[in-house]
Design goal:
Blueprint (H helix, E strand, L loop, with lengths): L1 E10 L5 E6 L2 E4 H9 L3 E7 L2 E9 L6 E4 L18
Parallel strand pairs: 1-4
Antiparallel strand pairs: 1-2, 2-3, 4-5, 5-6
Length: about 90
């Protein structure tokens, strides 16, 4: 299993993360979620100097995948604070 660092994000007009940057390449959230669920790759990001794991979950109303650094809805998703991918 390969470990990869997510360094930036692209959001849609509603502020939802739709793509992430890894090693200078841009990938859509659905692709990354599938790689997590199939255990092909693991992903992490750096938050306040600490390495945190990225999880793939599904939004309850529409079953769309999304990425987060926590499974606790009360804790912040560190991916939201990454810089915008260029």
């Amino acid at each position: 299993m390969t470990e990869l660092l997510i360094t930036c994000v692209k959001k849609n007009t509603q502020g939802i993360i739709v793509q992430v940057g890894i090693n200078g390449n841009i990938f859509d959230v659905k692709t990354i979620a599938q790689k997590i669920w199939s255990r092909e790759n693991t992903y992490f990001t750096i938050a306040n100097g600490i390495r945190v794991r990225v999880f793939a979950l599904r939004h309850p109303p529409n079953d769309e995948p999304y990425l987060t650094t926590t499974t606790n809805l009360k804790l912040p998703n560190n991916l939201k604070y990454l810089p915008k991918c260029q």
